Every structure is written in C-alpha cells, then in structure tokens.
Amino acid sequence: MEVALERLPNAVAKVSVTIAPDDVQQAMDRAFKTVVRRYNIPGFRKGKAPRKIFEMYVGRGVLLQEAAQQLVDQHYGAALQQAAVEPVGEPRINIVTLEENQPFEFAIEVESKPAITVGPIDDLLTEPLSIPEPTPEDLDKELAQLAKSQAQLAPVEDEPVSMGDHVVLSLKGYLETEDGEIADAEPFVEDENYAVEVGSGLAVEGLENQLIGLKLGEPATIRLTYPESHPDVALAGKPVRFEVTVTDIKRPEIPPIDDELAQSLGYQSEQELRDNAANRLRERLEAQAKNDRLAVILGKLKERVTFDLPPTLVDRQIHRQLQELDTMLRRMGADLDQYLESRQMTWDALHEEMRPAAEERVKEQLILEALAKELDINVTNDDVLEAVRPIADLYQQSVDQVLQTFVRQGSIGALAEDLLISKVSDYLASTVRESSESNVGGENA
C-alpha cells in the first residue's frame, strides 16, 4: 500500500491510497465468496455456482465493486495512521481507479486535526511565576467565611432587617406602567413564603437592599426595574411593584474563631484551624498564579502558531458551552429557550456569538496536544486510575466498574484527552526556565 497526504483548506486531509494489482486480485477472490451467496444462478443451489458461470451471468464488475469496498474497509485505518491523520469528522471516499489487473486507487477526504509544529518554547518558560503570600487580611477573611458557614440562625423580633439576615416575605408582584400605575390587577407573582438572604445577590437586583430597615409585620412597597437580560421576556426591562410584609427574620449568629469552633470542624485547636486555612489560601493563590501564567504563555503560542481550525471541533465546543449555559440557567429557574426569547435571538445567532470563544478554546487545545507530542508528555494507566478513583468513591463503586462505564459510553478517550491537556497545561504553568539576562522572580514549581 502506498499513501500520499495532501492538506486541504478547512482542516481537511486528503489521503490518496494505491493498492497493488496482486492485492486487488486476492480481494476479488474473497469478494466472489461473499457475493455468490446473494445470487440465484440457474442450475445451481444458491451460493454454489462456479466463478466462471457466476461471471457469465452477473459480470466481473460486481466483484470489482465488492473487492473495492473490502479493500477500502481493510486499509482505511492503516492509511490514516501511515499518513499521521487524526480524523474528527465523517470521511468521504472517492474511487480514483478501479480496473482489472491495475492498481486500485482511492482517496479519503476527512476533516482532521491539523499538523502542528510548535517548536522550542524555552523562551516562553522564562515567564515569571510569582505566587503571593497570603496577607493577614486575606487569612482573616478566609476564617470569617469559615465561621460564617457554621453560623446558627436565631429569630429576630424587635430589630429591623439588616444585611445578612434571612427573611421570609409575604409578597405580591405587579407590573407597572411608565406612570407608576399598576398595569394588571392580577399579580405576576404571589408567594406567602418568599425566602431571601439579604446581601446574597440571589434575588432580583434591587430587592434585597430595599428590605433593609423593614420591621416584622410592617407592610411596605418596593419598586424596581428588572434587568434587560432577565430570562423571563415578560419581565425583562419592565418596572414592577412588590407589596411585601416581613413575616420572619432570622439572623446568623456567627461563632467566634476559637478552639471550640476548631474542634467542631475536626481540628485539635484554633492554631491548627488557622494553619489549615492558611494552607488552603496558599493553594488557591498558587493555582490562580499558575492560571495567569498559563494564559500569558498560551496567548504567545497562539500568536506564534497558525493553522486551520476543524469546524467539527469548534461546533463540539460550542455545544459544550451551550450545555454549560443551560445548566447555569436551570439553576436560576430558566432555560435556553427563555434566554433566547429574552434576548430576542435565534439559535443560529447564539451559536455565532459563542463561536469566537469556542475557536480560541479549540486552538488552545490543539496547541497543547501538539506540545504534548513534542515534549513526550503522555497519559498513563495510573493517571486514568487516579482520575477515576474520586468518581468511584462518590458513587460507591469500584474503579473497574467506573472504567467499564466510561468504556461502554465511549468516553474513555475523551477522559484521556482531558487528562493530557491538564498535564501539558500544568507543565506550562509550573515550569520556569532561568532567563539568560536576569534571574526569574517568584517561586518555581
């Protein structure tokens, strides 16, 4: 088998394959054994006619066609592997030459990952990795958040609502006209147990701050305008009036940061709690510093390397982004259809809006994959096992059971790709080379 590769626009690879005449003849012999079973030849049981008789009645063209199909099926994968082509889309097969006693020639055109050569990157690895040390103020905020998470809610009766309170409202909401009149006597929302955490930012913008100062059992009117981006098109950008009465106020009683709090969280002492919080803070600051450094290096690599992006990979990335958006909207009680309606957009328009970010992400992934080959970074079986182990623990299954699930779903390859991208990203984010002009500041990982 002879293979020739031609790179076409839009990340399409054309692989031309030539099969020797002897191999074609052998394929025709195999083809006869397959095809003869499909035909009834007078005077013979089905599938028992001699080849010469079969060819007299049916013709050799049928055998040639069957032989060609078998040869394509047989050599397709090997041809792509020999040409170092990694397909990402459906192939198109073109028969170039199909004649007796002649080489069989066919061409595969398939969208594929581009051939990328990144080259030396030592100059990029001199980018400093500066990991800031947590300040006392940072640690105080970390501990305050931890203490707040352990707060107990206590009833409040004689004091007005303040920031951080957990409030229950009897609430009716009405749409208003531009003149401030009620547009519809029927409320668009009515809830006797509407719960709000003042300051959380989870309620519609403007509602929480206007609750501050209200007293238990005291009716009040709150006016605001829904944001233009609100998922419900009937409310987006509309002025509304809420008639509310506070029916319950609970205030979090935040415990002091001491030995008792530490022991309730499983630590021996306040000092151990502080040390653990400081370590977590350092880990976050280190992760952020590495992410920032990785972004800088990737930005320079994207300027240095140019190639055609496979449209199929971009479309897949857009689909992932849509799934992420849908998950976020559902947490807010909406969905993609409502989102599109509120923005007066079509699906095609949303796709095109997401395309630039998807293209950047795909370009980064392809560059990182190319770097993995050049740097000889691989995903081992141990890497896969370590990635699967937390999933197995979460679902109380064995690692083998989870692996079999990945294999059945056809997602084990995607898992390995994600792990590879993660390993290369960590290499770029953490590896610091000494500059030839000056020492590199910050910490090396």
UniProtKB/TrEMBL annotation:
Its EC number is 5.2.1.8. PROSITE patterns: FKBP_PPIASE (PS50059). It is an enzyme of class 5 (isomerase). Its main location: cytoplasm. Residues 164-256 form the PPIase FKBP-type domain. PANTHER family: TRIGGER FACTOR CHAPERONE AND PEPTIDYL-PROLYL CIS/TRANS ISOMERASE, TRIGGER FACTOR-LIKE PROTEIN TIG, CHLOROPLASTIC. Involved in protein export. Acts as a chaperone by maintaining the newly synthesized protein in an open conformation. Functions as a peptidyl-prolyl cis-trans isomerase. Belongs to the FKBP-type PPIase family. Tig subfamily. Consists of 3 domains; the N-terminus binds the ribosome, the middle domain has PPIase activity, while the C-terminus has intrinsic chaperone activity on its own. This is Trigger factor. The gene is tig.
